[in-house]
Structures are given as C-alpha cells and as structure tokens.
Amino acid sequence: MAYYYYNSINKMVTIIIFLVLVIDVTMVFGQGTRVGFYSSTCPRAESIVQSTVKSHFQSDPTVAPGLLRMHFHDCFVQGCDGSILISGAGTERTAPPNTLLRGYEVIDDAKQQIEAVCPGVVSCADILALAARDSVLVTKGLTWSVPTGRRDGRVSRASDASNLPGFTESVDAQKQKFAAKGLNTQDLVTLVGGHTIGTSACQFFSYRLYNFNSTGGPDPSIDATFLPQLQALCPQNGDGSKRVALDTGSVNNFDTSYFSNLRNGRGILESDQKLWTDASTKVFVQRYLGLRGVLGLRFAVEFGRSMVKMSNIEVLTGTNGEIRKVCSAFN
Ligand code: HEM
Ligand SMILES: [Ca+2]
Ligand SMILES: [Ca+2]
To answer: Where along the chain is Ca(2+) 2 bound (predicted)?
Structure first.
C-alpha cells in the first residue's frame, strides 16, 4: 500500500515537472513560431518574398533599409504582428517615428502574389519578417532562417508608438526600451548595427552640428574633419528632409563599417554615437571591430541571432489574430 502511494506521488511529480518544462520551453523558444511553418501549406511563400524584395531593390535600393526598419518598428509596437502595415487615420503608420518608413509597396506586392497561390495562409507579419531578412541578403549581408507562423494583429494605434527609442535618448534609456522587449545590451548594439545600411533625414541630427544643447557649438563627440562634411550636407536652416547615409562610405553594404565610423566619431545620430561613449555598449562595438582579441564577435552572424529574437517579440500564433487578405487593412 505504502509503495503504491509512493509510486503514484512519484508519477504525479514527474508529470508536474514535465508540464513545467514544456510551458517553460514554449515561453523561451517557441512562442509558437518555427522555421518552415509554410513548407507544406505554402511552399513558395519564402521564395516569393525573396524574389519580390530582389526585384524592387533593383529598381529602388532604398527599399532594403526601409523594410529592415519597418520590421523593427512593427516588433516594438504590439509585437511582430503587422500592426505597422495598416493604413488609415490614427494608425501606427501615422505616428511621428513612422512617417518616413518606406517599402510598404514591396509587402503589398509579395502578399498579392502569395494570395494568388495560397489564399488565406501566409500572414503579413511573416511576410515583413522574411522581407527584413532578405533586405540584409540583397545588401550583401549573411542570411539566416526565420521562424514563421506569426498571425496578424487587429489593433493599430498611433498612440502606441511611444515604445520606440528616440534618437536623442541616453544609452540607459535605449537599454531599458530593449530590455522591455527581452533584448539585452548585445542585442541593442547588434540591431542598431542595422544602421550599416540606409539614410537619415537631416532633421534628425542637424541640431548636433550647430547649437548643440544650447552650447553655441557642435556636439563635441563629432570628429573634427567630419563636422564640415556634415555641415555641407545639412546646412543650418536648410532642407530637413534631405537624406544622408547613416554609415558614411558604405550606405548600401551590410558590413562592420558602421562600427568603425562610431569609433572615429562619425556616427550620424546622437543615439548612435553614444554607443561608443558608454562603456557598456562600447565593448560590443570593439568586439565587432576585432579590438578585443579572443572576445571578438562576428557581426554578420550575431545580427541574424538578434534578429530572430527581435522577430519573436510578443507574436500572435495559433488561432490568435488573423491572416489578413490585404496587408494594409484588417479583414
Ligand atoms: C536606439 C534605437 C534606434 C534609434 C533611436 C533609431 C533611429 C533611427 C532614425 C532617426 C532613423 C532615420 C529615419 C529617417 O530619416 O527616415 C533611422 C533609420 C534607420 N534605422 Fe534606426 N533606430 C534605432 C534602431 C534600429 C534598429 C534596431 C534597426 C533594425 C534592426 C534600425 C534600422 C534602421 C534602418 C535600416 C534605417 C534607414 C532607413 C531608411 O533608409 O529608410 N534602427 N533609425
Ligand atoms: Ca506590431
Ligand atoms: Ca555599411
């Protein structure tokens, strides 16, 4: 009798431990997404996204940085659920940090082609995550496997965009906003390394070139020989919408040149240059530049890893959300 009780208690304990482990594992890894989610339901989905990104990139190279940034802005607001793609008054798209996003036409094009072969199967959130990955590919970076199976959200409000980090923010504030999404300091430095491609409008950094923080002079962290070049590109009271490379000399290549520029006081945004000023983020910049011996890190590899983490933020899976018919509108 005693043995029988012992045995069933033992079984119960085993079952409980098993359940706890399963719950834990799903929370840490899965959140329900997995590589090859569409391999039987829509086997051509990933290749359609890739060929669409490639063809748009050939006629307009700015779509690559545009789509990468769009995916980041999607994931930080309501999770990676395609909420950024909804158009109309009062939606996320209209919020100040999002007004200059580009590449929506690429997502709409890919979605239309995918709907023609497998209607109602592939989410817009997944199409955007895949397009962000392929944007790195076309700019000569490494590729990686993207877990899929996200579903599309049913909420898109301009007022939710405050989760996004701002370009004047301190490293501590940037770290806090990333930590709130489960991303650590390495992820922060690595993902902001996405600024190795693309451009910024003068309006986001020209205040650093002239009367920085009412000092009457420029931001002292800007390299002295670089300053006049930037001033020529963005004259005081000039056109704030004019665009300047975030990675001087390597705007179209997914490489570590952006980190060299930070080291040399040639970061464009205040938030970028601060990654070199702050000791906790500087070490990662140094590791990507091979300045820390055996602690060296390969940016191309780590970028894929951090992107997979970012792409899994607060995703909707299973029967949550919906699969939109058109990416710019709820069903
Ligand atoms: C502290 C975090 C970040 C801040 C404050 C920030 C801020 C900005 C700003 C102000 C611009 C210029 C936008 C424009 O003029 O159109 C920009 C561009 C860009 N950002 Fe970030 N960003 C951050 C993190 C990231 C991350 C994590 C990624 C991607 C993984 C990313 C990818 C890009 C790309 C690719 C562009 C160029 C966009 C284009 O050329 O259209 N950024 N960012
Ligand atoms: Ca979102
Ligand atoms: Ca570059």
So the answer is: 196, 247, 255
